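User:
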Amino acid sequence: AASPEARDLSLRALKTALQAEKHFDFQDLTALDSIQALRKSDEAWGELLEIFSGQLYEDLQEFKEANSSFLSSNSLNEDTLDRKMRLLTLTSLAAQSSSDTRTLPYSRIAKALNIPSEDVEMWVIDCIRCGLVEGKLSQQKGEFLIHRCTHRAFGEKQWREVASRLETWRTSLVNVLNVIRSQKEDFIREKEAELAGPEVRSGQNYRPDRRQRNAPVEVE
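Assistant: Predicted structure:
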């Protein structure tokens, strides 16, 4: 078990990370031994850390319902946590969609973040400004086209996705090199034909010189 001093330091670090407006990566905290010990000694704090490490906005709401006085008794600002959790939820949705269609419908965002549909673009822009996602909003289609997104947790699944993308890029590069090689060969053949002259290219108006005309011809 962690010492009281280690517990206090861990709680202070966790509270600071939760309430810092621009801190979104909780993997560094979960890797600490003192935080691991905190999960066992203080279940509510451990659950809250799990939510911000990889769960969604609805999970935070369920936590607040089950622990109605926890935030206020620990001087945690509910609005700050709600905002951060909405941004992290949007990040998770983008990460899931980027592996499939690379598009995220406004309706899905509104439902997951529990916000009016007219507020979707505001939240997406906020998420982009925080550096969590990159993409393009389409009002006409009512969807967010994802160019890049941050993975809240990077495990075996994410490594498989990286390997798959690298293989795709490798295949694309091989195809490009083959096209370049083919075009280069065509260019060389055209230049050789130009240097050889029109007679050789067309096979017309060709006359051998005197030595060629008098050369013996062998017939088998």
